[in-house]
Structures are given as structure tokens and as C-alpha cells.
Design a protein that fits this description.
Layout (H helix, E strand, L loop, with lengths): L4 H30 L3 E2 L2 E3 L2 E3 L1 E5 L6 E5 L21 H8 L4 E5 L20 H11 L7 E6 L1 H10 L5 E7 L5 H8 L14 H4 L4 E6 L7 H9 L7 E6 L7 H10 L13
Parallel strand pairs: 5-6, 5-7, 7-8, 8-9, 9-10
Antiparallel strand pairs: 1-4, 2-3, 4-6
Amino acid sequence: MRPYILPLLLLVMLSSCATRNERLKQQSDSLAAKAGMHRANVYAGDVPLLAYERLGSPLATLHIYIEGDDNGWLNGNTFSDNTPSVPVALQLAVADPSPNVVYMARMCQFGMSAVCERTSEPFSDAAIAAYQQAMNRWKGYPMELTGYSGGAAVALLVAARRQDVVAIRTVAGVVDTDALAVLHQVHPLTGSLNPASVIARTATIPQRHFVSDKDYDVPPPVVAGYQGQMPAGHCSAYNVITSVTQPSDWRDIWPVLLNQPLPCMGAGDVR
């Protein structure tokens, strides 16, 4: 190959990625606006995140949705741009009728910054600390965290560090990175934290995990195995959903799933 070909190919790839990210960002802006959500100036450490918020009541719980990342690491993908083609967490946030709703994309997504988390360390201690800092923007609200795919790992790891998380929901969630690595016969994530390792600190937070029986990346046995690690007195449950055949299907049934009761949370508890 001629010496100038490789740099040229790289330039074309970067240009294509930038164009794709700009298109996805515009689509996300439009989708969020339809639900009365507007851009929020949010940083995870020094890294800007694409985020939207709708704050309608100072007394109500805040629902925070954390985006997934297509689980590229399960296929050995090390490319730093992990923007999903379908922002499922944003779709869930838009489908949530609650007065206070926030959407947070992940570091590297939508071309918001050239400073990106390494694919092998998406859930590193530093990354989780940065997401926790980002959530401090809404400090004072009781928080219910919902994570889709890799966003579930972020939700669980952040919840283990905060005192204001009152509930957790995961959808097709990466709840145990080690179990997924074994299942898919890939190298375990290096430098990343495993959500299953903080179960002792999250077990008493009311939580429910939703998984599709047709999900190849995160199949029900992985979530069942996570549930099986819960200690006595836990507040966790999981549901296997049979009607989801593709990621966008979650959006259509989300209002129903959102209303499912959470273990250990009574009718009079903050919602």
C-alpha cells in the first residue's frame, strides 16, 4: 500500500463518523424537543455529554436515563466512537410521562468530544466518578436511574456511590461484565469495574431488571445469574420480556414496564 493511502483512509473514516454523529445529534434534538426536553450543559469530568432535561416539579423524583453503547466490546470492537445507531435510552426517556426526566449520553458519543474513554475501560473508576460528578447537576432530587445496555452498568456503579438514588431499572442491561465475557468468549474488560462486584452496596435499593428472551448480547441467564448473587433481604427483581425482538421495541412497552412495582418500595414512597 502506498504511504499516503492509510492517512487518507483514516481521514475519510473520521469525516464519515463526524457526519454520522451530527445527523444522529440532530435527530436526537428533534426527538427530545417533542417531549419538552431541552439540551443541558453537562460535563463528565472535563468531557461534555449530550444531555437533555425536563424539570417540571421541584418536589418529584428525577428519572435519569443513561445511554447504551451497542456492546461493541463483546465483538472485540476497540473503536472509540460508541454512538448507538438507535438511542434506545433517549426513546425510553421520551416515553416517560414523569415531570422530571433527564437523558445522559455516554462519553465519546455523538462526537461531543475528542477526549474519549478507552473501549476496554468504559466502566473504569475514573469514568464512573465522572458520571457521578455529572449527576451532581441535579443534586437535591431523589433519583431513579434507568440504564440501557452498557448504561445499566453505569447506573449500578454510580448508585453504589450515591446516597440519593432511590430506585434502579435496567433494560437489556450489562449487569455482570465478567459473566458476559465468559458467555461470548471474549477477553474480560481490563481497567473496568464490574457492576456485580458492588451488589453488596446496591442490593437494598429497589430495582427491577428487564431482559428480552431474544437478546443475544445480554440473554436472560446473565441477568438471572446476577439476581442469584443477591444477598438475603435484597430489593431486586427481574422480568423476561417476550415481546421485544429489536431494541426499538422497548420504547413501545416502556410506559407499562415503568409502572411495574419495585421491590421494597411501598405506594407511599417517593416516586
